[in-house]
Design brief:
The complex is a heterodimer of chains A (290) and B (415).
Chain A: H1 5-14, H2 21-33, E1 37-40, H3 47-57, E2 62-66, H4 73-76, E3 78-80, H5 82-94, H6 99-106, E4 112-114, H7 116-122, E5 128-132, H8 139-151, E6 153-156, E7 160-163, E8 169-174, H9 182-187, E9 189-192, H10 198-208, H11 214-228, H12 238-250, H13 258-263, H14 265-268, H15 272-280, H16 282-287
Helix pairs in contact in A: 1-2, 1-3, 10-11, 10-12
Chain B: H1 2-17, H2 24-37, H3 41-52, H4 59-69, H5 88-95, H6 116-131, H7 137-143, H8 147-157, H9 172-185, H10 193-218, H11 228-236, E1 256-262, H12 268-280, E2 287-293, E3 297-303, E4 306-309, H13 321-330, H14 332-335, E5 340-345, H15 357-366, E6 369-374, H16 388-392, E7 397-400, H17 404-411
Parallel strand pairs in B: 1-2, 1-5, 5-6, 6-7
Antiparallel strand pairs in B: 2-3, 3-4
Helix pairs in contact in B: 1-4, 2-3, 6-8, 8-9, 9-10, 10-12, 12-17, 13-15
The chains are: A alpha/beta (290), B alpha/beta (415).
Chain lengths: 290, 415
């Protein structure tokens, strides 16, 4: 498949992902140079969606590895299925099998539990590997990942080395709970996804909540952008904006005045102090709408 | 295409001069990225950014440099900088981004009076940058705050969005990230009330981050002793074979924190910011006692955003840490214990009064650890009336805390 920037732009659009030049170029380079791409940005700006959009665009499977504290190789790469091995051993013992035959059995693919990383490597075709929230994983895991990302091969002592047939498209996301090491940054392309601008968000709303009146959609986009500028504890994400717009549709709100804003604010803001802050400014935020 | 390659190399050199860390591998990536993305101006800019800029806070500096190098169509001659680039025009056009070129050095972007030594100090550093191709120089900078930092950081962080032709405007979060990083790297020594206010604003976010990072360090994954009961229970599933070992979670560590912070003129900003940072992570500790001192000790707390001391301190007093140590030692029963980590912030300048390092040794013997954070430039440690050399011997760690970033990193050492 010939990958061009145009192909990526169209593909992302087809996957219903509205975006800008920055994301398009970065995704294109990730595919063209076969390099992992590290996506950073505020929570809820669409980092994970990029990976899903790439998978939909190619189209291929998305293999997702959700990182968390204490994530280790057994959970990320592979693990032997102990229970099944034990059962096998007990069954064979009853028949008087020798250890030699036994070990051949129990260390075969049948008893291997493939975790996301191994799955991405052994997959016969090119997949999208999403390593989500890498900042949540420990530093040791990050170091382990470095090795993985450079060679795309895994050694399992009992089975030998497995190499990727097709290098997966690797997408890492981070919320910066911890600084990602320089070494990992160096190996990745970098993409920062910020909250969308007003115009871009209006397009997203129009696409995902088609029932919402066009004028109201524009006002909603403007309102959300203004709310994000307030420096809240948790600025509204795109998903929350969309939920809020759906709520506006269901509440049959026609005019985005201060009362309307107060009614459905719980959909948009999840902290009481954020909410109080926006409510106190609701009239001025509403008045700002032309 | 040699000219384009040279131009990209020059661009990379210019970015390195602005302390954007770029490795050789990354510059090769940049070449490949441009080759793949083509020479459309927008594509090329984003391709270079994806390969070279690994931290969003560096992005304004990149956009500014890109503007300078690729103002004209890439194949044509470079035609200087954008007229809006104020005083930078001359050096930018003349230099065309020679490696180590530092246009902002000659001007003060905000027209703000710069500390005298900023200009003089930055000159040798610039030469250093010119010779450096490994991009290692930033690490050097981070550990050693200098006057010159303020200037270049300012210019990189405040490239106004209006100048980014066609570039996506700097987003809300990106702008915030850039501002925070600028203030994080500004040495306390160069603070005025303006910087202090900026730091207080940034602290709202830094506090959250500090609390999260500290929490991570305090929490130890469950890998202590084997939990016999749960292991046996798990084994019953596998016919009594102990395949699955279960561990007892370690008890979370208790830390009592006793803070002694110098709030005399020279290190006042650092002290107040540190106390506020710790106050934000209060629940990570078992107990926190905060004291400030000049020549006497006074317990301190926050009321709203204001630092309140229990007894008034004479703001014109002269620092006397020896006496303060004596006062703290008299209250040792309540302040120091085996769980206590003592954090001292100060420059150890005692105005030639007795240092009483012997008391500090006694305190260190009673406590789990004593940590000394020093906001002073390491080059000046131990000079003049500084008694820091005597104190250093008695503490577990003596860390430079010349700016917010170093301060946060130093404070994480308590865990």
């Amino acid at each position: 498949m010939d990958i061009t920037e145009d192909f990526v732009a169209k593909g992302l659009a087809r996957a219903q992902y509205i975006t800008n030049q920055r994301v398009t170029t970065a995704v294109f380079l990730a595919l063209a140079l076969e390099k992992p791409v590290l996506i950073e940005g505020p929570a809820g700006a669409g980092k994970t969606e990029v990976a899903k959009a790439i998978a939909a665009m190619l189209p291929t499977e998305l293999v997702r590895l959700q990182c968390y504290e204490g994530l280790d190789e057994a959970r990320a790469l592979y693990e032997w299925n102990y229970q099944k091995q034990l059962l096998r051993m007990q069954a064979d013992e009853a028949q008087g099998a020798r250890w030699q035959d036994l070990s051949e059995h129990i260390f075969s693919h049948e008893y291997l539990l493939e975790r996301p990383l191994l799955k991405a490597i052994t997959s016969p075709r090119r997949v999208v590997l999403l390593i989500d929230e890498i900042d949540k994983a420990d530093e040791e895991f990050e170091a382990f990942l470095l090795e993985m990302l450079s060679d795309f091969q895994v050694s399992i002592p009992e089975l030998g080395t497995m190499r990727a047939h097709e290098r997966p498209v690797v997408v890492l996301t981070s919320n910066r709970a911890r600084e990602i090491s320089e070494a990992l940054r160096r190996r990745c392309l970098h993409l920062f996804i910020d909250f969308p601008g007003i115009e871009q968000e209006r397009k997203i709303i129009a696409l995902k909540v088609p029932d919402l009146d066009e004028r109201l959609a524009a006002e909603a986009a403007r309102f959300v952008a203004a709310v994000r500028k307030l420096g809240l504890r948790k600025p509204p994400s795109i998903a929350e904006t969309l939920d809020w717009c759906r709520a506006l549709v269901r509440l049959e709100i026609k005019e985005l005045d201060s009362d309307a804003i107060r009614t459905a604010l719980g959909v948009l803001l999840k902290y009481e102090d954020d909410r109080a802050r926006v409510e106190s400014k609701a009239s001025s935020l509403a008045a700002r709408q032309p | 295409m040699t000219s384009l390659r040279d131009q990209i190399i020059a661009l990379i050199a210019a970015l390195r001069a602005q302390r954007v860390r770029i490795s050789v591998a990354e510059s090769i990536d940049a070449m490949r990225a441009v080759a793949a993305a083509g020479f459309g101006r927008d594509s090329m800019r984003e391709a270079l950014a994806a390969a070279l800029v690994k931290d969003e806070a560096d992005r304004p500096a990149f956009d500014e440099a890109f503007m300078r190098f690729f103002a004209a169509p890439p194949s044509g001659p470079i035609r200087g900088a954008h007229p809006k680039h104020r005083g930078q025009l001359d050096s930018a056009a003349g230099g065309r981004g020679r490696p180590g070129e530092h246009p902002s050095q000659t001007t003060t972007p905000r027209g703000k009076p710069q500390p005298e030594r900023a200009g003089t100090k930055s000159a040798p550093r610039d030469q250093h940058a010119r010779g450096d191709s490994g991009g290692r120089e930033r690490t050097d900078e981070e550990t050693r705050p200098r006057g010159g930092d303020v200037q270049s950081q300012e210019s990189s962080a405040q490239a106004p969005p209006a100048e980014n032709h066609g570039a996506a405007e700097i987003g809300i979060e990106a702008g915030r990230a850039a501002r925070i990083r600028t203030i994080e790297r500004t040495p306390f020594a160069a603070y005025t009330e303006l910087e202090y206010e900026q730091a207080r604003d940034a602290l709202a976010i830094l506090k959250r981050r500090f609390r999260a990072r500290l929490g991570r360090r305090l929490k130890i994954a469950a890998a202590g002793r084997i939990d016999f009961r749960r292991t046996i229970r798990a084994a019953t599933q596998h016919g009594g074979v102990l395949t699955d070992l279960r561990f007892r979670a370690r008890r979370p560590r208790h830390i009592d924190l006793t803070i002694l912070a110098d709030i005399s003129g020279s290190v006042r900003y650092a002290a107040e910011l540190m106390l506020e940072l710790i106050a934000g992570a209060r629940e990570n500790f078992h107990r926190v006692r905060s004291f400030v001192y000049i020549d006497r000790l006074a317990e301190a707390g926050f009321e709203g955003r204001h630092l309140i001391t229990e007894t008034a301190l004479d703001p014109f007093g002269r620092s006397d840490f020896g006496r303060v140590l004596g006062e703290a030692w008299d209250r040792r029963a309540e302040l120091f214990g085996r769980q206590t980590v003592v954090v001292i912030l100060g420059d150890g300048r005692n105005n030639r009064r007795p240092a009483r390092a012997d008391l500090l040794r006694e305190i260190a013997r009673h406590c789990r650890a004593v940590l000394w954070l020093n906001p002073e430039d390491p080059a000046r440690w131990g000079t003049g009336d500084s008694a820091i050399a005597q104190y250093t011997k008695e503490v577990r760690a003596h860390v430079a805390a010349g700016n917010l970033r170093e301060l946060e990193r130093g404070l994480l050492e308590v865990a």
